[in-house]
Amino acid sequence: MLDYPQVALDFMNRDHAEFIELRKELLGLLTRQAADAEVDALLDKLLRHTRRHFAEEERLMQAAQFPPYLMHKTEHDRVLADMESRIAQWRQQRDAGALRQYAEEALADWFTGHVGMMDLVTAKFIAAQQKAA
Q: How many C-beta neighbours within 10 Å does residue 43 have?
C-alpha cells in the first residue's frame, strides 16, 4: 500500500487511486507468473492511463496559467519516457524480476513523491483558480 495525500481536485484523486490499482494488479500478475500477454495488456493499460492523466493535468495547468507548468510537464515527460523504455525492455527481455523491481521501487517512489509535492501544489492552485472564476 502506498501512502500519498488526497489533493484538491477529484479527478486527480480518482486517477491516482486507479494508478495504485493498476500497479497492484501488475505486481499480482508478476507474483503469480501470469502469461506474458496478460502482463503486456496491463502495461498497455497502465501507459494509456498515465498518458491520459498527464494530458488532463497539463491541460488544466495551462488553462490556469500555473507558473511552474514547464517543470511539472518536464517531470511527466521524463516519467513517460522511462515507463515506455521499461515496457520495451520487458517486451524484449521478459525479465519479470526487473519489471517487478521497477513497479515496487522506482514507480512507487516516483508516485508518492510526485503526488505529495507536485500534484498537491498543482491541484491546490488549479482549484483556487476554478473557484475564483
A: 22
Asked if residue 44 is part of any domain, the answer here is yes
The whole-number pLDDT of residue 2 equals 79
Annotate 85-132 with three-state secondary structure.
HHHHHHHHHCCHHHHHHHHHHHHHHHHHHHHHHHHHHHHHHHHHHHHH
Residue 38 clears pLDDT 90, i.e. is over it:
yes
Q: Tell me the pTM.
A: 0.94
4: which 3 cell numbers? 500519498
Which CATH number does the domain housing residue 37 bear?
Answer: 1.20.120.50
What is the number of structural domains in the chain? 1
Residue 73 belongs to some domain of the structure = yes
